[in-house]
Design goal:
The longest helix has 29 residues. The model has no long low-confidence stretch (mean pLDDT 85). The chain has a domain of 108 residues. The protein is α/β, with parallel strands linked by helices. It contains 6 helices and 8 strands.
Length: 245
Amino acid sequence: MIRRRIREEGFTRRILPPVTVTNDDLDRVVAHDRPVIIEDMEPASKGAVSMPFGDAAETQFYYGNKFVCVFNKISTPEWTKDINELRTYRMDLRQVVTDNALKDVQTEEDGKFIGGINSLVGSVTGVGAGGIAQNWELVPQDAATGAMFGRADYSKVLNVLENNYLNNGIILMNRKTAKTFLTFNRTEIGGDLAQDLLKEGLSALKEATIFGVKHLFTIKRDQVPDGVIYLFAEPQFLGRFYTLP
């Protein structure tokens, strides 16, 4: 069999591990009949203060926010083939179609995931649906080199979440953007890794761990554009990804 293109497994499930739920986990709402799950969100905390003996602490009422997880269905066409026609193929046509269809489903899943993130963070100068600034533009210190970023620039990328009291969990970029790491010289990247990157390219980064942070590289440039880097905190600080059996 000669393949026409590369199909890649989805990155969404590697960022937000899915959790399969049953009917007992579902909640009901009065607005519609569709299944949902209502989750709790960590409440804000005013913090502690120092005070002299004899003083009483301030009384403050507290409550926790909730959010709704909704479900939707992703489907491929319903494939059909006469079993006798399958006899003329040397390859397992059913398996090939099934494998490609599964990757197409994951591509659609990735597109919805990235679309939701883009809506949440908004533009560089705006706040998006999240209500706070979550989109930043990085200007390379030495733009004359043509590289999208250098090591000093990339350290600023890693500081973005930590400046907001979150740990870096996973960083997502497309493979063209990731090739910027190939421009790092031995002084910037240190040791023999510079030589390995020259000889082996991105495959030298077998664990895809850079500066202690897991990285995902995707070929889906239509979903993750050139020069765009998505930063995700550790999974417990993200939303929920529920699947129905």
